[in-house]
Structure formats: C-alpha cells, structure tokens
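New to this. Comment on this protein:
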Amino acid sequence: MPLSLQARLPRITEDLLRAVDEPGEALAPAAFAIAGVEYPALDRAPYLQRLERMGEAAAGRLQRQQGTSARASIATLNAYLYEELGFSGNREHYDDPRNSFLNEVFDRRIGIPISLAIIYLEIGRRAGVRLEGVNFPGHFLVRAPAEPGGADDDLIIDPFHSGALLSEVDCRQLLRQHVGEEAAFDRRLLATATRQQIVVRMLVNLKRLYVRMRSFPQARAIADLLLAVDPSALAELRDRGLLAYHMEDFAAALKDLETYLRLMPRDAAETEPLPSDESGDEPSSESAQIWEHVKTLRRRVAGFN
C-alpha cells in the first residue's frame, strides 16, 4: 500500500534540504525533490541524464555558432531550447500544477517562468554559458551577466517568452503588469536570486496553487517544506496552522498559531497579547483574527481531553 503524503514528507524534506545545501549552483535536484510531493515513485536519474545530454548538445551548437558575443550565445541557446526542443510557456493553462513540476515540464515541454528558468539555467550552465536567476516580482527571469570590464551590459532573459531579451523599459512594463500600475521600478528587483530564494519561490507558487484548488494536504506539506528551508518564515508558520485548522487537525493548528502570535514582531504588526502578556496593545485585524482562531482551538482541544 502506497505511503501517505504525510508519511513521505520526512524523506521529501531530507532530499530537499540536501539539494539546497549541496555545493555548486544546481537547481534540478531541489526541483525533483519538490516533485516528490505529487510523484512518489519519481525516478530522477533519467531526467538528470537527459539534462546532461541536452547540455552537451547545447555546447556543441555554441561551438559552431557565428560570433562570440553573449547575445549570439543566448540566440543559439534559445534556438536549441525553444525551436529544436520545443519548450514554451503555458499561456492557456498557466495554473495547471503540472507546470510547476520539473519532470512534467521535461515530458510536456511546457511550463511557467520559474520552471522554464530552471531548465534554461541548468542546460545553459552545462553548455558553459554564465547565467543567473532573477527573482523578479510576478515573473521569474534569467540574467546573462556582462563580462567584467567588457563593453556589453547584462542581458535580461524571459524564459517564458522563448528567451526574449528585455530592456529596462520592458522590465518596468512587466512589473506594472504583474504588480499594478503604481509599482515603482528599482534595479534591485533584478538582483541575483540565491538557490534558496529560487526554491522558496517555487514552493510559494505551489502552496498558493494548492490553496486555490482547496488541496489542503498538499498545501500543508508545502508549508512544511517552506519552514524546513527557511525556519524564520513566520508567515508560513501561520499558514500551516490555518491549513491544519481547515483539515481539523486542531492540536497542530493551535500549536502553530500560538507560536506565530508569540513570535510575531511587535513592530511588524500590533499583536493581540496572549494571556501572559500585559502590554495591552490593540490588535491588528490579522492578529485579532488569529487570536480568535486560537481561542476557538483552545476550547476544541480542551474538549478532547
């Protein structure tokens, strides 16, 4: 009988943390660890072998390309990934969860910005192209950094739109499209993303998707993974507690929500004080709601004893 997701979660967590902490810049092992949430029997070895073959093929095309500029290399890499291999952004079914799992993106050759960016980064690096992830709001991007002392600027690449090169004007427009017309552009939004930041973004995307689908066991498992990767993420502690509440796991919900209220910084939000707190602060709407949940949960848990 197959193990439940909750029973498999410790192994998934172990695999993910190992992948996040391993030397180098590889992203595929972490992405395949996350895919274990939906695909318990996933064998990642064939996919990693395919990545190696694709990287070798891309390197061969780069060696034969006309010109040696970064733009020429990106054009060659784009032709291989999008024309030869047929990868593309899934515009019609953007919220299909399969777009977020690297094995499905490999098999279907379709995905969302961050999953396509991981493939772009992994194949490009294997082919010898310097690339970095960019944790841009609402739409993950890739950068080919300029050579130190060179005349060229960084190239900002959109892996969702066939590797299109984006100007600063394009990035400003992309920000307004995803965040709103009043969003202020800052070049710091184009900072290089660490591997941990990329993994967190993948997980946050998945959690939001599962919540919209009302797939609470999966969403709760993703919240567990987020807290394993970043134990300081208080919002994830709150969300895990709320998801446990939805699933009627009242003891777990109470533990998480009480811990959240205790740890939430006073300067971030005016927090409803717990009984041991005599500060008398006025609660914010969010903390007041959480406090009401906690009081309800205490009554429920006490009734079980």
